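Record filed here:
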Amino acid sequence: MSGRLLPWAGVDGKPCYLVGDGTGHVSRLADQIESMHLGMAGELLDHAAELLAERRLTGEELHYLARRLSESLREVKRVAESRGARSPG
C-alpha cells in the first residue's frame, strides 16, 4: 500500500496523505474534491477567457483574476501529482 496525496493541506499547510486501499470514505471524498477542483478550474478558465477578450479589465480586476487562476493551478497541480503517484508504472 502506498500513500495517496490528498487534495487538501493540513492545518500547518503541509501535504496530507492517506494510506489505504483506495476504497474507503476518505478516498471517495478525495475523489469528489478532486473532481470539483478540476471542474472549477475549467469554469475559471472559461471565465478568464471571456474577461480577457473584453480587454477592459482594471488593474485590480486583473490582479484578482491572476490570484484565482494561481489558486486553481495549485489545486490542479496537486490533483495531477496525486494521480501520477497512483498510476501504475
